Amino acid sequence: MATRASVKSPRVVTPPPAPVGEIDTRYLETLIGYNARRAALSVIGLFMTRMARYELRIVDFSVLSLITHNPGITSAQLCSALSILPPNLVGIINALARRGLIGRQPHPRDGRAMGLHLTDAGHALMVEAEQTASDLEIEATGRLSAAERQTLIRLLRKVYLPP
Amino acid sequence: MATRASVKSPRVVTPPPAPVGEIDTRYLETLIGYNARRAALSVIGLFMTRMARYELRIVDFSVLSLITHNPGITSAQLCSALSILPPNLVGIINALARRGLIGRQPHPRDGRAMGLHLTDAGHALMVEAEQTASDLEIEATGRLSAAERQTLIRLLRKVYLPP
DNA sequence: TATTGTTATACTCTATAACTATA
DNA sequence: TATAGTTATAGAGTATAACAATA
Description:
- The structure is a homodimer.
- Chain A is mainly alpha-helical.
- Chain A has a single domain, classed as Winged helix-like DNA-binding domain superfamily/Winged helix DNA-binding domain (Arc Repressor Mutant, subunit A).
- Helix content of chain A is 58%, strand content 6%.
- Chain A has helices at residues 3-8, 32-51, 58-69, 75-82, 86-98, 120-140, 146-160, and strands spanning 102-106, 114-118.
- In chain A, strands 1-2 form a two-stranded antiparallel ribbon.
- In chain A, α4 packs across α5.
- The first copy, chain A, is elongated and about 60 Å long.
- Chain A binds a DNA duplex through α1 and α5.
């Protein structure tokens, strides 16, 4: 994932391909974890490229998307839903607030918590970003038919959802 | 992934569950990347738990597995096949060699390169580790039928393999 | 000139401990 | 006492630059 390289440095320094075709990877390819990780990295790679336009990392997009569809959500709920540890969310939230994309409002029932909401600017950004995300998903899975795509999501959910 | 916590510290410090059921995550669940990443993390979590017995991380297992099925493979080939940068592979290889699991032999055709091979101890370990990996894959995808499992791998490969 | 393997190093991500304010 | 949010910090993972030896 050459994130910084593509942003900061226009020069390509990373070594090129190298011979791979002769390597036998058949055993690893029998493992769901190996295939799921490679597929995730492939889609996520395109995701990062497209979202760089909005200066959003995946975690930023995920946080903003949950705030979009859950106005007033708290940091603790975000942490739980996205498996982020509370100390690591603080900087993410602060950065999004500093950019004027979200605002904090006192929680109506819990004086300790702050409800998170999109600003108008945040809403405008997310309308575009979510459309971009949906588009790139189709692009990243271009070799799959609509039915296959639906099957893939169904099977992936059966893997990670609790019984 | 509470790796170190479960190994070094018997005390549980990480905050507990928290309310999640009421959060609307339906949009994120339409994204292949989101689902593939969660599935990968789910399988990889069990993988780490089972492989801790052999003191192997995923990257260690992947490297050893490729050496197992490609005796004499070079570091550059491992880097290419597993998307590891050369400087980051050095420590991995050194650690496996220090544990007596692999050995380096001069490459027959290229004086710069070293061919990597399993030692007898490394071979014995990998017979067990690969069996453990295959078993836990079935366990981690326990809700999938054999046919579904095969379909899932086929669709994942269509996502990440080049056209 | 290009590639292999390596050292040094920096940045990002993730994890733990400890604190405060509130429940 | 337990939880929400925060600060400080440590560790793992991943990235770039630069070098010696060999092709």
